Amino acid sequence: MKLNAISDNDGATRNRKRVGRGIGSGTGKTAGSGHKGQKARSGVSINGFEGGQMPIHRRLPKRGFTNIFRKKYVEVNLGRLQTAIDSGKLDAKKPVDTDALLGAGVISKARDGVRILGKGELSAKNLEIHAAGASKAAIAAVEAAGGKIVLPAVAEQD
Question: Which residues pair with 76 in a beta bridge?
Fold first, then answer.
């Protein structure tokens, strides 16, 4: 293969539109901008403008807020853990924590921690899972299979 022989696939590129090149070209005279007025000029920003009427985004009341302290957990189902164990990516004899899940490719980012959810079947015995949180169904399913879920200790407030 030679560099001078490389080319795009047919239809991958399109020629630019040559505007303002005479009436016969179809895009002559106003060059596709229509006739005069604000929209024919550059720098137009009238999105949301309703002709002086109070715009809808100002007529409607504000509601709610965004909690800046909210934790964003990565959710992992028990079925996904079992498929990783079956394929040999996770070792069931070692504790399953965030680093093990990242290494196995079960999760792509750790975010604020991993939360275990109960969807799917877990057949691995004596599995020890270290997670930031878990649903009641997930805890019950893991304990039924003979394993345990280790959650971080929550400091009680007075």
Answer: 116
For residue 74, what are the β-bridge partners?
A: 114
- Domain extents for the chain? 74-150
- Residue 42: the pLDDT is 87
How many angstroms separate the Cα of 129 from the Cα of each of 58, 109, 143, 146, 147?
49, 17, 11, 12, 8
For domain 74-150, which CATH number applies: 3.40.50.620, 3.100.10.10, 3.40.50.300, 1.20.1600.10?
3.100.10.10
State pLDDT tens for residues 47-87.
Answer: 888 889 999 999 999 999 999 999 999 999 999 999 999 99
Profile the chain (158 residues) by mean pLDDT over runs of 10 residues: 93 93 91 90 85 93 95 94 91 90 92 93 90 94 91 69
C-alpha 139/C-alpha 7 separation (Å) is 57
